[in-house]
Model the fold of this input.
Amino acid sequence: MDLATIVGMILGFALVIIAMVLGGGVGQFGDMQSALIVVGGAAATTLMRFSLKGIGSAVVMGSKLAFTHKNVSPREMLDQITDLSDLMRKNGPLGLEEAEIKDDFLKKGIQYISDGYDDVFIRSNLERERDQNLSRLAEGQRFYSAINDSAPAFGMIGTLVGLVAMLGSMDDPSKIGPSMAIALLTTLYGAMIANVIAKPISDKLEAKFELEETNTSLVIDGVVAIRNSTSPDLIKESLAAYLPYPMREGLIEDLDAA
Done:
């Protein structure tokens, strides 16, 4: 579970609610008309950008990766691939079946080796699955990015609606307050949805897309190298290019020591 996303979102809402309470109560910040304009408008424009099936998969995939996906660093993945390579050299392909592998993508690649498939089959199938997973992840990122674009825009539209209503009822003081509330609260709702929900999740998914692309590409090259009985040291050296520079320093020292 990604606690950073959950804690950050809860903290963002909590601070705003506390400020509302200190300012006189939460009730005065609730307005159904403002909510309809912002939430309904953002939902409608987002719906126009995706198919119904696409929205369902985008919400599921985006929420899963943003809130529950466990990050594995490329260095950890490389170390595990190196260990599996050493196990392959000692016990052969069947020895890999006894290895405990938590990452599903790596587990599938190792299973291909145990089943005796050649390196061409393994690479093509793993690349196809990688591309499909990245496509779904990108769709989730686009969904939350669309909400991030639409919510503030409809907040501004609601502000204009409220101002027009207020100017049209200047002769009736009882209508000025509700109209001004719409003008201000729609901006608040749009900003909250964009900056506390949509934008953070969109950025989180973008970062995880880059990490997932790196890890899966590293796994594909690593599994193929294991299938071809490449030495662990050579695998470690060839796959080091996938690592960010700070992660390479200890790896280079290990290779020099070897």
